C-alpha cells in the first residue's frame, strides 16, 4: 500500500464518521427533548391526593397517592407462578417432605407447614395455619401476641399505642381484631417523606447491640434492611421484660450458623423439647437476610429489592415493582439487568445450585430422623440423662444447622457455598452423634440398626409422632368460621371511627 | 422554562456535541493510522527463523520462531509467587497435612507429595519425587513407563516411534534417557500450522468412547482440551493390551465423582490396598478438567487458557502468555478482563470460597483417618472378610470423594458448589461406615472410641504407618547423583545426532 492511497482512505473514513456524527447529534437532541417532556409529565402525575396519617395501616389509603406501587403490591395476591411450577398455589411442605413431621415432633410445625404465599396473604395465612391453633377467647393460647409482629402495618400503630413491651405481652388472640391489614406500605415507608424506614424495634435493637447505628446506613442498604425486619432468625426472649415474649435477633456473636448456635447455647435457650429424642431443640425461623449477607450478590452490593422488587417503567415513569416475588418469575427485569445470558440459562444455573444443595440437605434430614428414633430407642432401653447429654446436644446442633440451611429458603441460591458448608457440618455432627448412639445402644444390648419409621406420607408421619389431626383440623375450622369473622367485624367498626381515614386533598 | 429558552439551550448543546465530535474523529484517524503501522511491524517480526520438524521436542528450537511465547513459557520456572504466599517454593503437602500420610498408607503418595511446580520442572520433579523410587537399571521399578506420559514433548516423539501401546509397556527407568524436555510447545501445538492439537491418545480415545469427535471441537474448547490431555482423572488399564499399562480416562459414565466411582466399581479396579484398613482404594489423580466443567466459568464458555494463559501485549503484538500460573498472580490480565472489581476484593472472594470448602475437606480427612484405624482395630480383633466387606467399600467410596475434591486442586474455586456437594456425600459415607464399625467393634467386645493416632507431623505419621524414610531418601539421593546424570548425558548425545536439530532458514 502506498502512502498516498493510505492517506486518501483515511480522509474518506473521516468524512464518513463526520456525517454519521451529524445524524447522531440530531437524534440526541430529540432524545433530550423527550426526556424533559416526560419529566414534566411525571411531576404532574405524582400529586398526592390523600393525606396519609402517621401509622396509617390501610394499604388502600396509601394506594390513592401511589397507584402504581399499590397496584403492583396487589400482585403479591397472584399465585399463578407457583401453580405453574408446582401444581398448587399453597404447597404443603409436610406432604412434600414428611421427614419434617418427625424433625419437628412436639412442635407446632409438625402440625402444619405450608410454603409462604405473598405478603397479601400474611394475615389470612396466620389465621389459617394449624400452628396458631383455635383460640376461643382473647386470653387463650397457644400463641403469644409476638407472633403478630411481622404480619401487618397495624403493628407499628399498636406498638405506638401500647408501647413495645406491652405489644409483646399477651396472646395472639387478643390482637385478632386489631391486626387485619396485611403486610404493606406502613411497614417500610415514612408517611411524610415516603423514605424507607425501619418500623420494627427488634432490628434496631440488634443493630444497637452490635454497636451499629441503623440511622446511618445507606439507601441501598435500606433496600435490604426493611426486609430484614422480618426475614431473619429470631426468638422470643422471656427474660427481658416480665410477662413479655420479647422479639429478639440472636446476632450478638454474628450471623453465621455457628455464631447463632453459640448465642443460643450460652443462654441455654430452646424452642421446644423434641417429643421422641427429648433433645432441647432450636427452630430456625427464616435467616434469609443473614444467609444472603454471606453470598456474592450481597458482597457486590445488590440489595433484596434489586432482584425481588426491580425497577419497572410505565407511562414514562420509573418506579419500584412492589410485587415482591421470586426473581425467577421476572428474570428480564431482575437477573438480566446485570447478567447477559438467556433466561433459560439463568434459570438452569439457579436450579443447578439448588439441586446440589438439596441433595445433601435431604440426606441430613434422613440422618436426623434416624438420630431421633435411635435416641428414643436408647431412652426406651433405659438410657440415663448422663448417657444422653452429649447425644442430645449433638441432635440439637445438627438439626439447627439443617434448619438454618432449610428455613432460609432462597439461601441455596443466595449463598450456596456457605449453605453447603453448613449442611456438611450438620452431617458430620449428626453422624458423630449416631456413632455415640450406636455405642450406647450396644451397651444397652441393642447392637443393630434401629428401623427407619414408615413416614412415607404426611399422614403416616403425623400418626407416627402421635398427632390427632382430625381434632386439630376440626378446631381450626370452628375458629375460622366463628372467631375470625367476629375479629373482622370489630376491625371494620374500629377503622370506620378512628381518625386515620383517607382525607382527599381536593 | 419557556419554549424559547428551551430551544436555545438545545442549540447550544448540539454545537457543543458537534465540536467534541470533530475532536474525537481526528483522534480516531490517528488511532487507525497507529493500528495499521503496528500490524505492519507485527508482520515483519513474525518471520519464522528455524525449521521446526514434526515431533520436535526441544522447546528452545520452537522458541527461535516464537520468542515471546517461549520467554513467557520460561516464566513457569518462577516460584516467587508461592514463596511469597507460602514461604516455600516447593510446598511439602505431607508436612502441611500429615493426615494424608495415613490416608495413603501403602501407596507411593504417603512417601512424598509436594505441590506441583510449573511445567518447566515437570521432568526434574518426577526424578526428584520419592514416588518414582530409585531404579538402578532400565528394567527396574517401581514405576511403569506410562508415568512419563504427561511429562514431556518427548512423549509424542516416542509414541510415534514406538507405537502407543509399546510406549505404555515397560518401565519408567527405561524411558529415563528419552524423556528429558519438560512439558512444552510440541505437547499442544502443530509444528506446521502452530494450531492447537491433541497429542495424547488417552483424551482422543475417551472422546471416542463418549461418541464425540475431538476434531470437531471449537478453538475455544481446544484452549481447555489441550490442558485436559493431562489435568484429568486417569488410571492404568492392564487388561486392554497385554503387558501394557494403558493410560485411560474413566469418563464412560460421565465426569462426576459418582460416575467415575461407578466406572471403577464396575471394573473392580483399585489403585492399591490400604495397609491399615485393607480397603481396595482409589487414588484420584487430578480431575481438574472434570471439576472445572461443572463450574460457572466453563458454563459461561471461559477456557483454561483465558485465565491461566491470558492474552498479553508487548511491542504492539498481542500474544498468549505461556507462563501458565495461578490467575491470582495475574489478576489484572485474567479476572479483571471480565470482573470489574478491585484485585483485593476478587482475591478475598476466591479465598473465601476455598476456605469454606477446605473446612469440611479437612474434617473428612480426619473422619477417614479414624475409619482406617478403626478398621485396622476390627481386623486386629478378628473381624472376618464378610464383616468387613461393606465397611471397606464405604472407606473406598468416602476417600475417593475426598480425593476427587482434594486432588482437583483449583476445584474449590472452579466449582465450589459441586465440590461442597461431593465432600458432603463423602462425610455421610465415611460416618455411615464408622457407625457400622462401631457396631462391629462392639460385637468384637471393643465398645469404645479407637484412639486417634499421634500424627502431628509428617515424620510421626510416616512412622505410624511403618515407612523407613531414611532408606527411601538415601536410595533417592543415590539415584539422583548416579542414574539421572547418566540419563542426561545419553539424551544430550542423542539430541546431537538425530535429525530434529534447528535449521536456520537464512
TrEMBL record, chains A, B:
GO terms for molecular function: heme binding; metal ion binding; nitrite reductase (cytochrome, ammonia-forming) activity. GO terms for cellular component: outer membrane-bounded periplasmic space. GO terms for biological process: anaerobic electron transport chain. The keyword Signal applies. Its EC number is 1.7.2.2. The keyword ATP-binding does not apply. Keywords: Calcium, Heme, Iron, Membrane, Metal-binding, Oxidoreductase, Signal, Transmembrane, Transmembrane helix. The chain crosses the membrane at residues 12-36. Its main location: other. It is found in: Cell envelope. It catalyses: 6 Fe(III)-[cytochrome c] + NH4(+) + 2 H2O = 6 Fe(II)-[cytochrome c] + nitrite + 8 H(+). PANTHER family: CYTOCHROME C-552, CYTOCHROME C-552 RESPIRATORY NITRITE REDUCTASE. NCBIfam families: PRK11125.1. Belongs to the cytochrome c-552 family. This is nitrite reductase (cytochrome; ammonia-forming). It comes from Maribellus luteus.
